[in-house]
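Ticket #4471: structure export looks truncated?
Reporter: QA, pipeline team
Priority: medium

Steps to reproduce: submit the single chain below to the structure queue and open the exported record.
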Amino acid sequence: MKKILYRNILNDCILFFLIAIISSSIIIWVFQAVNYLDLIIEDGRDFTLYLKYTLLSYPKIISKLLPFVFFFSFTYVISKYEVNNELIIFWNIGINKINFVNFFFKFSFLILIMQLILTVYLVPNFQDHSRKLIRESEITMGETLFKPKKFNDTIKNLTIYIEEKDQDNFFKNVYLKKDTDKNSFQITFAKKGNLVSRGNQQFLELYDGETINKKGNQISNFSFSKSDFYFIDNDTGIFKVNKLSEMPTLEIMGCLNNILKLGFNISNKVNENSKHNCSKSPNALKDIYEELYQRIVIPLYLPLLMLISQLIIIKSKEYKNYSKIKILIFLLGFFIIIFSEASVKLVESNFSQNIKIAIFPLSFILLFYFYLYYIFRYRFSSKIFPKWKLI
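Actual output as written to the record:
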């Protein structure tokens, strides 16, 4: 009987949790995907790349939403059981409230493991792969780069401007400025132009124009009746080297091992595009600690959130201030979530200081657990102490 009751309430919690996190994450993913449309509209990249890039951001969305949805789901379902008088069945068949707490507390470690898999492995690796897609992709030159009366500098070191586009898809009054060096550039004017494909290459076919070259203090120019302008350098202004958040956790640990000379047997191989994150400056060390804190320490607040959700069973729904207690519990949970995210700002470049911050969630877990143990194991009785009673 006890197993059936536990299974039913856990199934309800998990079902509500899955529905909430999937629906909310899809909504956020759609809004985020709209922002990524610039990859196609502005940069002229293909739809397949856009789709892959947006899908690779989904695990990160899940990891960010999970603490909020986890706490809300379990608190809501347990309070609903109380309101519907279903928790009375647990107490009437002899289930102790501390055993009830222990059941959900143990389950929270399963969610903790899932979150750690996301933050430590899946999210950084998916982010690294998405950056790799951008780094290795090429711009598919299209009409998105040639908008009338609008300067376009999507391609690195190149500015494009056209005055208008006629019915035959010819560009009129084309302006191109290409920066070839610090003090050197090339400016090309043409009365008419057309985007032409030849094999895998795309280029502008220009008519009746002039090219001005400046190299140092020397300026030269020549006129042409027809000229081809090739987009040899397809690089865009997108930051292509990896951010720290996109580095695999093992590489970050390797960086830390090298900087502090800890001597651990950790692979020191770091991606060429990530080496800039592994400098020995105090700021770089602080950034590494912050990243590891977000991936490893912040998920440890999940068991604490589960314990806070169990505060809902301290009082029954008949208690006159039960609604206020529920509100306070929700506010406390959301405060812990906000505090866990904000605590990353307390991280310093000093290792011993960071250890003190890292034990915050463990300290809070012990504090709340012993508080619940004390509440559910002992009551006030009129004999030994005027109000203490063992249950």
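Status: closed, not a bug. The export was complete when the record was re-opened. Leaving a note from the reviewer for reference: Residues 97-136 form the longest helix (40 residues).
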